[in-house]
Amino acid sequence: MSRQYIANLKSGNQVEGVFLVLKKEIRETKDKKPYLNLQLADKSGCIDAKKWDASTSLYNSFNSDGFIRIKGTVETFNNSLQIKLLEITPVSESEVQMDEFVQSTEKNVPEMLAELKEIIRSVKDPYLSKLLISFFTDKSFVTAFCAAPAATQNHHAFLGGLLEHVLSVTKLAVNFSGFYPVVKKDLLITGAILHDIGKIRELSYERSFQYTDEGLLTGHLISGVLMVNEKASKIEGFPGEHLNVLLHLILSHHGEYEWGSPVKPGTPEAIALHYLDNLDAKMQGALKAISNHKDDSSAWTDYVRMFERRLYKK
């Protein structure tokens, strides 16, 4: 029997297979009967699932971030699909193929990395060039940078997502700088490449995408600043003003205090980076929402949290 991926499920389907457990909790019905409320995933997406008349022993038999084999029926509830679970059996990690559960970029990682390195070679400022080279000749950094997602769910939430997002923002920065010669091109490019490097410390991504302790305690902006400061400190004569404006780019790229930036963009390059970063994230989020909506009878997606509205698909 071929694998049934979540993205292909339709209401009424009988489903049987192994899935990754993203979330699990035990709840009670109005009649005080316990049931399991789960969120299951594979590389194509995630779906809610419920097991009625469940026991505490069944709840304790598997872990969140573990694997279960299920039998069930796909139903529609509040205009969304969910699985009514009939059977649940815990499955050992040794029995699964991980590439079926963790989504990866559809683009060629070595080609994306090569394209980013080509842009790095175009940076003329000697100090910014040395800084970028110090990162991209660091094998452990490059390995993590090429594997990490850019987020846990909203945009580029897949292996290689960080590289894909950074390359897109950097290419936008290259083109943008041609329209505004007053913008310091080398600084904007460097900020675009380094603005999200803290994600490699903020996120864990061996199975599902979760926040690390460092990510929850400090976040990727602070982690990125620490990483840049460490590399810059090893470059003899690295100008203090260069470092200040570059760190400002990283700290301000979310744009607003309520979006996590401790400072708002205060230079032309920082203003540009904020909007270019936001543009790429929003476009990827919109295209993902449209692609994932499988109801061909509707010209509109379901409500998309990122945009707080439905999107027109045609």
Automatic annotation (TrEMBL):
Keywords assigned by UniProt, alphabetized: Hydrolase
Gene Ontology MF terms: hydrolase activity; nucleic acid binding
SUPFAM superfamilies: HD-domain/PDEase-like, Nucleic acid-binding proteins
Ranges that cross the membrane: none
Main EC class the enzyme belongs to: hydrolase
Pfam families, A to Z: HD (PF01966), tRNA_anti-codon (PF01336)
Residues annotated as domain HD/PDEase: 158-291
Record EC number: 3.1.-.-
Family annotation (InterPro entries): HD/PDEase_dom, HD_domain, HDIG_dom, NA-bd_OB-fold, NA-bd_OB_tRNA, YhaM_exoribonuc/phosphodiest
GO aspect biological process, one term: rRNA 3'-end processing
CDD domains, per database record: HDc (cd00077), YhaM_OBF_like (cd04492)
Listed NCBIfam families: HDIG
The name this protein goes by in its record: Exoribonuclease YhaM-like protein
Gene designation per UniProt: yhaM
